Each structure stands twice: as C-alpha cells, then as structure tokens.
Amino acid sequence: MGNVAQQIIDSLAASGVQRIYGVPGDSLNGITDAIRTNDSITWSHVRHEEAAAFAAAAEAELSGRLAVCAGSCGPGNMHLINGLYDAARTRVPVLAIAAQIPSDEIGSGYFQETHPQELFRECSVYAELVSDPAQMPRMLRTAMQAAIARRGVAVLVIPGDVALKDADSSTLAAAFAPAPRVLPSESELRELAGELNAAGRVTILAGAGAAGAHDEVIALADRLAAPIVHALRGKEHLEWENPFDVGMTGLLGFASGYRAMEAAQTLLVLGSDFPYRQFYPEHARVLQVDLRGEQLGRRAQLNLGVVGDVKETASALLPLLREGRDRGHLEDATRHYAKTRRKLDELARPAKDGKPLHPQHVAARIDAHAAEDAVFIPDVGSPVVYAARYLTMNGRRSLLGSFIHGSMANALPHAIGAASLNPGRQVVTLSGDGGLTMLLGELFTLVQSKLPVKVVVFNNSSLNFVELEMKAAGFVTFGTGLENPDLAAVARAAGLAVLPRQVRYVFGGAA
C-alpha cells in the first residue's frame, strides 16, 4: 500500500502532474524519496524555493494545468511565499507542498517551527494541515480541486513523520478540470445590448480574461466600431491581426490608448481588472463583463456589470447589436495610434558608433529575431516597458511576467518553469541587472537542468525603473546604484554559453 508520501506522489501523477519544483530538506525526505521511485514525476531542483514557486506559476500559466512546488519545514517553505503570491495574483493553479516539523512538536517552539497554514492563508484558496494518514487522499483532492476550480494557490502542510506513515488506504486522489460555459442571463444580455445600441462612441478595454476570445472580441469591435485598448496581460491575446488595436493605456502605455478611452462615451471592459483608476474616463458610461462577479465595479463606477466568460458573452451579444454605426471615433483612434506607433519606433533606432545601445533597439531586435512561438519573460521594471512596446504577438507567442504582483527577479525563475514545460520551445528573458542578480543562483539551475533559456540582460548598473519613479515624484535618486560584476564572466563560469564580446549588448557603459 505504501506510505502517505507515496500516495501523494502517485495521486499527483494520476492527475497529470509531471514535475515538482523545490529544494530538498529532511522534512521533505518522504516526498522526495517517493518521487525518486516514481517514473512519471521528476524532481526539478532549483537553488532557492522562491524560484520553485515562480517556476510552478509559469508552468501553470502556460499549460493551464496544475503545477506543483515544495519546500521543507520552516524557512524552506517560507521562501515559497513570494512566488506563491505571484501565482495567486496571476490566478493560475498551483499546489504547494509545505513540509512541517514533527507533528508531536508542533506548538512547542521547536527548531524551525512555523505555522504554514497561517502564513500562506492570504495568498491561497486552500491551506490546511494533514495531521493523520486517514485524511489522505481526500485533503489532497480537495486542495487540487480548489487550485484548479478557483484558479489559485492551494497549500498542503504535512509533517515529515506523517508523510512516512503507512497510508490508510490505497485510494488515489484524482483532480478534475471542468470547463463550464458561463453566460449572463437573457435579460442581462438584452440590457447590455440595449446600452451598447444606444451608445455613441464606444471603446473596448480588454485584458487577460479575453484569452481564447480573439475572434469574438474583434467581431464585437467591428460591430460597435470600437477601438480596442488592451491591458498588459491582454496584449498576448488581442494585439495580433487586430485592425481595431490602439495599444495600451496606463503607466506602461502610451497616448493613443489613453486618448481612445478618454474620448469614449461608453467604455466596455472585457475580462480586465486594470487597476489604475485615474486612467478610466471620468464621464463615460462603463459596462463590464467578467467571469468573477467580485470584480464588477472594483475599479470604476459601473452602469452595468454582468458575469460571463468573454468568449461566450461576446458571441451571444453580437446578434443583438445593431449594424451601420458611425466609424469616426474608430478611425480617429486608429490614426492616432499609427502616429504614436511611429514615434515609439523612432526610439528603437541603433545608437551611434561607440555609444551604448538603446534598450528600445535591443527589444526591437529581440522581437525581430525571436521564434514565431517564443515565450518572452520580462523582469519587473524597465524591461516590462520595452516588452509592452516593442514585442509583437502573433497568436503563437506568449508573454509572461509578474504583471500584477510586481516582483523583482521573476524572469529567470519563470523561465525555468516555461522551459521545463516545453523543452523545444524558445524561451527568452528580458532580465534587468537588479532582477538577475537577486536570484543569480538560478543561472546554475539552467545549467544543471539543461534548460536552453536565452537570457538577455539589460545592464544599466541601476534599479532603473525605481529611479524613474523617484524622478517622477520629485525625489533625488538615492540608493539605486548597482556595482555589478562582469555578468558575462559570471554566466560563463556558471557554464552558460555567452555571445562574443564584440556583439554583446552594452547598456549605460556597464559591460
């Protein structure tokens, strides 16, 4: 029958899990030994548990399936927390196995004692302690289902001694991944159509909730004669083959997206939780479609909000909308976008001889040379700006990042998960020098796990975006300088291939 740890690993394998990211430790010995004897699941050893959680988050986002990470008791699983917060805010299904101290020592102030079920409560949809073998596999099944159904983090806390006890039964947990259709009621659809039919200038703001709904949103924009502004997480899903695209708004956006929203008499928000309230139009009527009812009206005062999947709702709404709308607003917005786009592209020109390359130019060249199905992963900070403005999506490329949690150092560990999931797919990081050096040890993970990630470092010897924020707020820049080593030499010492010096990109004079 085996022990509880073997039951957990066999259940995860039966649920389609292929790997577990983590760092081993004595309280995890039962789990890692069960992985050693299982042919379906591999142990993906990283150098820091934070990277394990980020890697699992990236795998879950790209695959849409449950991904798993693990940490040993006390400080081991505590290190997971930043990556788990990122997974929670991105709303991807991740299971974290948090090992605990011996069960008979809990509450005694024992060596490395923490209470993970409390520690992870805020960033999880489920966090519970397994204290008896009889609780398995039901608790594991409940944890997996919570992560999948609620698209979030589930944490299973298990003391090392409980993991080594004989399993109470031979039953395996199996997770289900339901795919329901979610539509507003008929009366809500008619009310929404009535609002749109009576509207003058309509602009669409679409986000990650529009994933898989590209054609339906395009058809809706065509019928409404509406320009489409995309949030950053909507870029991947809506930017390509879109004659209605007018770019982004917000802190990372540009004038055309802001203007298209500001000029709207009605704003239709589709699957977006765009957080910056100051960028919403002040006088427009706001209509919102979101799969999660709790999102409705969170960012702007609504005239109407409905719960529904964007793809299903757009399809059901289209036949109810009148045709023959005036297209002046759309044409004005797309002309302004073309003008704005030309100005942005002018910034991506090559530098003069002997001068450091412009980062915009580097981003544009990455875009030009990357594979048609590349996964791009920018670090939080200025690399996100360059990714948002100069990477082009085509329906096959992916763009990942810590776009909601906003954590430094996400690019390299996210890349570990992306490359582990798809070994043959090109994965490219746009790493900042601050972000890279924060989790520098994960370069060794790339080598050890033989992951062919392309790491591009924007090395300006500073926390550049923090400096920009300081200047914008009227502060003198302070505490943002970085004295970096020769990062190419570090990478070469780690065992990575490095471009020859004459073609290596240089920023701000720092090699």
UniProtKB/TrEMBL annotation:
Origin species, per record, is Galactobacter valiniphilus
Does the keyword field hold Isomerase? no
User: Where are its TM segments located?
Assistant: none
Cite the PANTHER family for this sequence. PYRUVATE DEHYDROGENASE [UBIQUINONE]
Q: Which Pfam families match?
A: TPP_enzyme_C, TPP_enzyme_M, TPP_enzyme_N
Which InterPro entries does the entry link to?
A: DHS-like_NAD/FAD-binding_dom (IPR029035), POXB-like (IPR047211), THDP-binding (IPR029061), Thiamin_PyroP_enz_cen_dom (IPR012000), Thiamin_PyroP_enz_TPP-bd_dom (IPR012001), TPP-bd_CS (IPR000399), TPP_enzyme_TPP-bd (IPR011766), TPP_PYR_POXB-like (IPR047210)
Swiss-Prot/TrEMBL keywords: Pyruvate, Thiamine pyrophosphate, Ubiquinone
| Domain of life of the native organism | Bacteria
Lineage, opening ranks: Bacteria, Bacillati, Actinomycetota, Actinomycetes, Micrococcales
Would you indicate the residue range of the signal peptide? Answer: none
Domain Thiamine pyrophosphate enzyme TPP-binding: where? 379-499
Protein name per Swiss-Prot or TrEMBL: Ubiquinone-dependent pyruvate dehydrogenase
Q: Which positions fall inside the Thiamine pyrophosphate enzyme N-terminal TPP-binding domain?
A: 3-114
Q: Phosphoprotein: is it a keyword of this entry?
A: no
> Where in this chain does the record put each Thiamine pyrophosphate enzyme central domain?
190-317
Family to which this protein belongs = Belongs to the TPP enzyme family.
Q: Which GO terms describe its molecular function?
A: catalytic activity; magnesium ion binding; thiamine pyrophosphate binding
